[in-house]
Amino acid sequence: CPSATGPGVWSIPVEIGYSRPVGILSCLRHIIEAEGLRALFKGLGPTLVGVAPSRALYFSVYAKAKHTLNRSGVVLPDSKFVHVGAACSAGITTSTLSSPLWVIKTRLQLDNGATRGQIMKLIHNIWKTDGFKGFYRGLTATYVGVTETVIHFVIYEHIKAEVKRHNCKVRGNNEKNIVDFLQFMMAAATSKCIASVAAYPHEVIRTRLRQKELDGKRRYHSFFQAFRKILREEGRVGLYGGLGTHLLRQVPNTAIMFLTYEAVVNFLCKEDLPY
Q1: What are the phi and psi torsion angles at 4 (to 5°)?
Q2: Angle, alpha carbons 248-61-126 (nearest 5°)
Q3: Is the pLDDT of residue 152 over 90?
Q4: Phi/psi at 214 (5° precision)
Q5: What is the reported pLDDT for 204?
Q6: Which of 57, 81, 52, 55 is nearest to 69 (CA)?
Q7: Among the listed residues 247, 206, 197, 250, the one whose alpha carbon sits nearest the alpha carbon of residue 230
Q8: In 3D, which of 55, 20, 53, 32 has the Cα closest to residue 260?
Q9: 202-234: b (≥16 Cβ within 10 Å) or e
Q10: Which residues touch 253 (CB under 8 Å, ≥6 apart)?
Q11: Is 166 exposed, middle or buried (0-12, 13-18, 19+ CB in 10 A)?
């Protein structure tokens, strides 16, 4: 839709005669009617460029941090403190390095005038308007969103450990089969769903901070200023706009990603894992 008020929360500008948020299907229909089917794939380029390296970096940092903390002697191995520390390290590192890609992706998705070949023009406009820091707008909200990562991994690791303990007791060995990996996938989906709901407001705030205001005036300047403004003007509902769309995208994505990760690690590394 022409104007975005958050991930999945869309509104038509007032001059068109409608300013209230619309639902997923209404927004989908409006995008297709106004901009065509291709508009549904805006921002796909930066996403494809960034998703593989960012995920690879994320799991690498998580595994390394987990290995380091387990051997540090400071905390109990494989405790919740280890999972929290590893998740924070992975989340902050990945968010910092990949922020420019996600800023560009968000701008492309929100710009109803964006066309093929507009990425370089968009990058130039961000640089001209905000300089280097423009590529890191919303980074504070992303750092706050690391809490989602922490909640996700703590719950996931707990469920995974219980699943492994139960299956080992039943089978008498640590060998994994297809059922184990399906259970890991369900654990990932469950933990991601809980974490996303608990930490979702940061997604809305991050998008508001990254969006380009139509009148050129910046309405959102910092995480807490945006939080107060949304809460004051739209209430708690505004902080959870687009949650359904977010869960439809993230939960299956995470389940498949963790299934793939666990399967690949088990196949390639076996007992040689450093963590």
Answers
A1: -115, 140
A2: 65
A3: yes
A4: -65, -35
A5: 93
A6: 81
A7: 206
A8: 55
A9: bbbbbbbbbbbeeeeeeebeebeebbebbeeeb
A10: none
A11: exposed
Helix (H) or strand (E) holding 106: helix 80-110
50, 105 Cβ separation under 8 angstroms: yes
Quick: pLDDT tens for 40-96.
Answer: 777 677 777 777 788 888 888 998 999 999 998 888 988 889 999 999 999 999 989
pLDDT at position 39, please? 75
d(CA 108, CA 39): 10
Element (H, E) at 10: strand 9-11
Q: Which distant-in-sequence residues (6+ apart) come within 8 Å of 118 by Cβ?
A: 108, 111
Q: Per the structure block, which two tokens stand in for 213?
A: 């205001």
- For residues 232 and 122, which has the higher predicted lDDT (pLDDT)? 232
